User: Fold this.
Amino acid sequence: MFYIIGKSVFRKEALDKVTGAAKYTGDYNITGLLHASIVASPYAHAEIKQILTSEAWKVPGVYAIVTGKQCPILTGSPILDRPPIALDKVRYHGEPVALIVADSEQATRKAAALIKVDYIPLDVVNSPNDAIKSNAPLIHENLKDYKLLEEVYPEPGTNIANRTKIRKGDLKKGWAKSQITIESNISFPQSDHVAMETRCSIAQIKPDGEVIIYTSTQTPFTVKRLISLYFNIEPRKVTVKTPLVGGAFGGKTSVQLEILAYIASKSVGGRAVKMLNSREEDMITSPVHIGLDAKVKLGCTTEGKITVAEITHLFDSGAYSDRGAIISRAAAVDCSGPYTIDNLWCDSLCLYTNHPNAVAFRGFGHLELTFAIERAMDILADQLNMDPLELRLKNAIIPGNTTPTQTLLNSSNIGNLPACLKRLRELIHWDEGRRIPIGNNKVRAKGVSCIWKNSNTPINASGGAILTFNHDGSINLHTGAIEIGQGTKTVLAQILAERMKMDISKIHVHMEVDTRIDPEHWKTAASRTIYLVGNAVLEAAEDAMHQLKMTASRVLNISTQDLDVSESRVFWRQDPRVGLGFESVGSQVIGRGRFVMKGLTGLDPETGKGNPGPEWTVGAQAVEVELDLKEYTYKILKAVTVIDAGKVLNPEAAKGQITGGMNLGLSFSSREYFIFNDNGIIQNPQLRTYKILHFGENPEYIVDFVETPQMDAPYGSRGIGEHGVIGMPAALASALSAAVQVPLNFMPLLPEFIWKTKGGVRSDSI
Amino acid sequence: MIPFDFEYYKPASMMEAVDTFRLLNTQGKAPLYFNGGTEIITMARRSHIFTEAVIDIKGIPECNTLYIQNEKLVIGASVALTQLEESNIFPLLGRASRKVADHTVRNKLTVGGNICGRITFREAVLPFLLSDSKVVLAEQTGIRNVPINQVFNKTLNLEEGEFLVQLVTDVGYSQFPFMSIKKTKQEKSAYPLISIDSLKKDGQIRFAFSGVCPFPFRSSNIEQVLNDKTIPLELRINKALSILPAPINNNIEASAEYREFVLKNTLSDIILMLGGRN
Assistant:
């Protein structure tokens, strides 16, 4: 029996949010605050001949104009490949070429319009396929000289920023055993996260050299580490503060605007400077969602047992590698999808192109790899004339199998995929038929996708928690976890309330994270916050309870072994009336907890062998559509996810997370993309023409859970933060492909593109 | 945030408005008449519009009319599109209004602004073209009352300093069968691939188009062809497409080929629904 785990507790910040009292970075204002804006490149690839600033200086209120020449450093993670302000050449449309600091945002914008830049256009690398051509223009001529911060393998003289190799089993044997083979190619361009809050950073350098950065980020501790590294500042002198974040979806794991804000502050003697992205800047100047072209070859027996797979990922990571290099690795690590494939080959490449640079997007490479493998699974099922759900069930990965990186699976480090698939089959009424004509030129069709995901954190990723007590016996919970709308802070309070068996209303969660006060947490990313910080909270609870018992034991003269804790009291187990409330024994107590990943390894550069993360969450997803065969327009009727959550800690919050993920995945796959012209210029860098799924256009969402506990996670819970998004694009493509009876291997799945795939001719048969 | 400063005037009468315009114009302030502001604000934010002065015409009583008088609907230019939807005074216009932007924007976006703005779709004009409405225009020399089909050619052809005050429509038009169809790329609230309003009067179907070509239009030649029951429907449609006033739009919303495909389907649907079958 659980005390509060498994109950749908309201979010701690709910009242602030629904009343508008919640504060975000952009709301922060201090006396004397200056503002900074950028001048963005109108070219995707061009040499900068000269920058004329004299007219801009005439705008009243301008304090500083900074160009790349004034800060010729290189930034980036894992590859130091990026000048914060373009130096000598621009590599994407929207790249900052100058930074203006003024006493109002208006003055910065006025001045920005008056800066004259002369460019000499260069040939553009406009797709990953262009990027790997032997005669492709080089985007980074000095790739060999760049410093690397992590395990990453750039190939100088090419546009390859990273290559991850997976070599498992014996391909020859695999192909020899296979009787049926298929090949499938998929492609989708870059897109945006479109978080409601555009990115905002405020930087200030105090007279004693202390740097304070307020920023909307998922990674305040990384901001601290990288600002300190890039600008050679002692870490103790960098403090990063992050209040509530208004949506991130991975887009706020990159350190970008913070660097510009720091440079801006430095240019005006350390005064506080605010940089607030306009929506258009947030879409193309700041990092975006990665694009992918992929090829998957599968071989299987006539019974549908997959014997071999060869997979090539060409990621469009844009002008600077940023996290794209690690995303491409993550996509290699789980490239097979949740299927057991003994003979496996994968090359996953992160490519430089003249597009905006990519950063994490919810799922971190998994939505992408899943689209590639799942489209191939559908094509294989067609070839086999086998039910696609059966094919997935037949090859589902289970304990005893090994992953692409040759990690042996057990019932703790992987969930129960067959159970998810079976439940999905019921919820989507799979057996009533995959494609049902309903008259009037319309057809209803269903598609499925399996999902799995492990994290690709550093092997020592960690979390921490500190508990302090108030005079009324209530507890303050301090952690480094960021509230990005996912409800983590509330669930952490639940974990604490459960362990201490106390009323959750007596646990106060501090929403803002301050790197000087709060214990370090790797990043609020990778669906790992409950695992890392939740485990730290449990340790902090143990530590606090130990101290409470020690104090109470002295007062009550009862041994600590005979004391127990619940309902904010320490009491004698034999006679619970004898005891002390936290208000009398808590004031001296500080509970401390920490947790570090265990047993992870790097990957062998030649085979990819290694253990990338603590567990694979698995699930199965389905989409049902109604499509008009005359015009190829469609409605998404239903979207279903069944996921092995290990243990559902807060059912409504968990459903909300999964549903939000599904919505993001359907929006992305049905309409979101950047339209590049032949010169690499983005044609739709604004929400007038870049469309996202709106409320009312959403389907019915159905979420259900399977619970196979992960042994070392808080109450057995598995990471589920990102997972709703992962299989939605593939499931939508699967449903639409079934509807039009042609494989649709691209995104976005727009009616026009479906019409084109059908040959642009009217279909007259159902 | 709008990166430039501008003056704001709110005249109380038509004459005050045109006088203000003339004065500001002579001062070289490139004044703009301002109604709901949805377009000026969003375009100014991105520096796609520049002005040193705006003249808000929402304070002019004639611009806010929404009534029937002497068998005429009199719709002020400052009436917001949601008002038109909700009043249901002219059902086709109500339906056509709903095709523009989204509900929140339509609370501000006015019928006059939609017709006179820079965004080329101007879908609110289509019902007025179909109903042979008249426009009331105010300028220095006084008020003009002109058939819309005379002064609307791609855009409303206004003299310098002139502005749209009202649209006047015979009330009988609100009784005729109609269809109002908008097709988009994917999202409901988006620019149209094609937007067609149609109305059947005296056995003839009238058509007005937006999104098909770079401007909205109604063409009597096209109407004649599409109503010619002596030729099969498919041929009629092909013939109509051959006499469009400009090549079909080819842009980020859709290719010309796909637009043509959608246009053919939609015309066929409309003609079948409104009983124009052979």
About this structure: The CA atoms of residues 208 and 422 of chain A lie 63 Å apart. Residues 762-766 of chain A have pLDDT under 50 and may be disordered. The first strand of chain A starts at residue 34 and ends at 40.
